Amino acid sequence: MTDLFETRSKPIPITKDMVRSAYRKVRSNNGSAGVDEQDLKKFEENLSKNLYKIWNRMSSGSYFPSQSKK
User: Fold this and answer.
1) Contacts of 31 (CB under 8 A, 6+ apart)
2) Residue predicted with more confidence, 62 or 52
């Protein structure tokens, strides 16, 4: 019998193309700063490294976004 409180995470394949596509959507919408308050201009100063960092954390399962501020 399966324990109702047991969770088993299944890895979701996150590709670099998915991260780049998400970035392009944010960019096309003139995205504003996120909960980390880093705007796109600052993010783009080191775009490749920042996109890689996001992809690496998401694909490994170690990315946990902060709660949004109200």
Assistant:
1) 40
2) 52
Tokens 């324990």 sit on residue: 3
pLDDT value at 70 more than 70: no
Q: Is 60 helix (H, G, I), strand (E, B) or coil?
A: helix
In this prediction the pTM is: 0.68
Q: Which structure tokens are listed for 46?
A: 């080191």
DSSP 9-51: -------HHHHHHHHHHHHHTT----TT---HHHHHTTHHHHH
Q: Look up residue 25 and give its two tokens.
A: 């959507």
- Residue 59 has a pLDDT of 83
> Rounded to 5 degrees, what are φ and ψ at 52?
-60, -45
> How many beta carbons lie within 10 A of that of residue 55, not counting itself?
19
